[in-house]
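Weekly sync, protein design subgroup
Attendees: M.S., D.O., the rotation student, P.L. (late)

Item 1: inverse folding check
M.S. brought a backbone from last month's batch and wanted to see whether the design step gives back something sensible before we order anything. D.O. pointed out we never logged the input encoding, so this time it goes straight into the notes. Structure tokens as presented (105 positions):
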């Protein structure tokens, strides 16, 4: 069964995919390439990166909050900047949790 699939499995017409069957990463990448090529050429499905872009934007906003908290703490030492540090820290954590969970909001 596996031998038959590997014999006919090609990403391009001229170049067959050759991987070791115990190299899980190479097999995964080969299957990803095959599926991407199949869906974009045969079924004409457009590839979108909206979820990944949204997650990058959320992480960027979290980094801005963290940077502002560090800068404010540098300009106004700790006892004075306690409230700003708390707000920046508490707003950064949910943003990063949302970003790392893969939900993308």
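Designed sequence read out in the meeting:
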């Amino acid at each position: 069964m596996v031998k038959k699939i590997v014999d006919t499995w090609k990403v391009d017409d001229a170049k067959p995919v050759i991987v070791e069957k115990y190299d899980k990463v190479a097999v995964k990448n080969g299957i990803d390439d095959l599926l991407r090529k199949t869906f974009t050429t045969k079924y004409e499905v457009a590839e979108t990166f909206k979820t990944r872009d949204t997650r990058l934007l959320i992480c960027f906003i979290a980094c801005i909050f963290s940077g502002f908290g560090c800068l404010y703490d540098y300009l106004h030492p700790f006892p004075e900047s306690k409230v700003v540090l708390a707000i920046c820290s508490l707003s950064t954590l949910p943003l990063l949790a949302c970003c790392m969970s893969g939900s993308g909001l």
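Discussion: The helical segments are 2-8, 24-42, 50-75, 78-101. The longest helix spans residues 50-75.
Action: P.L. to compare against the previous round before Friday.
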